[in-house]
Design goal:
Layout (H helix, E strand, L loop, with lengths): L6 E5 L15 E2 L2 E2 H10 L4 E6 L9 E4 L9 H11 L4 E6 L7 H8 L8 E5 L4 E9 L3 H9 L14 E5 L12 H10 L2
Parallel strand pairs: 1-4, 1-6, 4-5, 7-9
Antiparallel strand pairs: 2-3, 6-8, 7-8
Helix pairs in contact: 2-4
């Protein structure tokens, strides 16, 4: 399946507790981080959606809201809600705070779709990056099982389904803006 036939979902529903303010609304030049990510990913994918607890963007984006039967912040809940929206397809999942992901990383991950994996995520020497990769929507029921057990770590899925960890050398591509200093540094280097 071609990249342009697939959808992308940017996760914007976290609490941003380490940042101290909503990461999705941080400004990069004259746009928010959400606008920046949606615009960039729109070049590669059929459609780009935002995942969040509520519409904090005034209908600016195509929104996938967290399922209201669960009242907590959780990446597992975001995945469950996303997989409830899509039927039998791969979706590219990316956190809003990973602004350096480029077409190169996406294409390398995409190259493994033709194999029999249900999850394909990036891995660097330091970390696995569960919020940068392709997930199959058939994982919905498994996500729901974990939510009912109050389990929220996405890594739990990796041992349950066939998962590919795609190795990358460049740690910089997987920068996460978790702290205000990281955001300030990124903003000052952004051209």
């Amino acid at each position: 399946m071609e990249l342009k036939e697939l959808n992308c979902v940017i996760l914007c529903g976290g609490k941003s507790s380490r940042m101290g303010e909503d990461k999705s609304k941080l400004k990069i030049k004259n746009e928010t981080l959400s606008e920046f990510q949606v615009k960039k990913m729109s070049h590669f994918f059929k459609k780009v959606y935002i995942s969040a607890k509520e519409d904090k963007f005034n209908q600016q984006f195509s929104l996938i809201k967290d399922d209201l039967k669960f009242q907590f912040y959780s990446p597992m809940l975001a995945l469950y809600s996303i997989f409830s929206y899509f039927k039998d397809e791969f979706v590219f999942i990316l956190s809003v705070d990973s602004p350096n992901i480029s077409e190169n990383e996406i294409l390398k991950l995409h190259s493994f779709l033709k194999e029999d994996y249900r999850i394909i995520i990036a891995k660097t020497k330091s970390y696995k990056h569960p919020l940068c990769g392709f997930y199959h929507s058939s994982l919905k029921n498994l996500c729901e099982e974990y939510l009912k057990k109050n389990e929220h770590k996405i890594g739990l899925l990796f041992s349950q389904v066939k998962t590919k960890f795609v190795e990358f050398e460049n740690e910089d591509a997987f920068l996460n803006l978790n702290f205000y200093q990281e955001y300030e540094k990124f903003k000052s280097e952004f051209k």
